[in-house]
Design goal:
Helix content: 25-40%
Number of helices: 7
Order of helices and strands: EHEHHEHEHHEEH
Shape: globular
CATH topology: Rossmann fold
CATH superfamily: Flavodoxin domain
Structural class: alpha/beta
Distance between the termini: 9 Å
Radius of gyration: 16 Å
Number of strands: 6
CATH architecture: 3-Layer(aba) Sandwich
CATH class: Alpha Beta
Length: 182
């Protein structure tokens, strides 16, 4: 079965890393289903039954998004709140996510050096984004190591070096997925 990548980027057309990752995933449709939340729900009205059925028909899922203030974009937060319902995702009778591989893939605008105890953020990426791990573990999903890429500062020039780094990040993402979501 395939891996579902739930992509939440409010402006994917203007994205660099997340768009490159989505394009790389699209080259392997037999392995990955890319589900763009902002394209599917421009009105922000999430069809819970459809989303749950989509998760049910995949062996694993990854939440892919750019980090916004140590969190995800609003529509993904709404997706988590609406779709991960009691009785389906969690609770004494819930089995939908039990043992299903799940994780996150994120792009960060801040450099890696900022995500250290002595850096500007003051902790590692995994620690900053631990609520995602806690949520998925609470739903009994099989949490996988996160993929993260420290990429583009919005004030930086988009040049050949940056293009090469983004292309490499897409290849690194595919390697990560192949390792943890075979």
């Amino acid at each position: 079965m395939k891996t579902l990548v739930i992509l939440a980027h409010p402006n994917l057309a203007q994205s660099t890393a997340n768009r490159a990752w989505a394009d790389a995933l699209a080259q392997q449709p037999e392995r990955y289903t890319v589900h763009e939340l902002y394209r599917r729900y421009p009105d922000r009205r999430i069809d819970i039954a459809t989303e749950q059925a989509l998760v049910d028909t995949h062996a694993a899922f990854v939440l892919q998004f750019p980090v916004y203030w140590f969190n995800c974009p609003p529509l993904l937060k709404q997706w988590l709140d609406d779709v991960l319902t009691h009785g389906w995702a969690y609770g004494s009778r819930a089995t939908a996510l039990a043992g299903k591989k799940a994780g996150i893939a994120v792009s960060l605008g801040a450099p890696a050096a900022d995500y250290r105890a002595d850096g500007a953020v003051g902790c590692a990426v995994a620690e900053a984004l631990r609520p995602f791990e806690l949520t998925l573990r609470y739903c009994h999903a099989a949490w996988q190591p996160p993929f993260h890429w420290h990429g583009i500062d919005s004030n930086a020039a988009y040049d050949d070096t940056t293009r090469a780094a983004v292309a490499q990040s897409a290849q690194d993402y595919l390697v990560h997925l192949a390792r943890y979501y075979p």
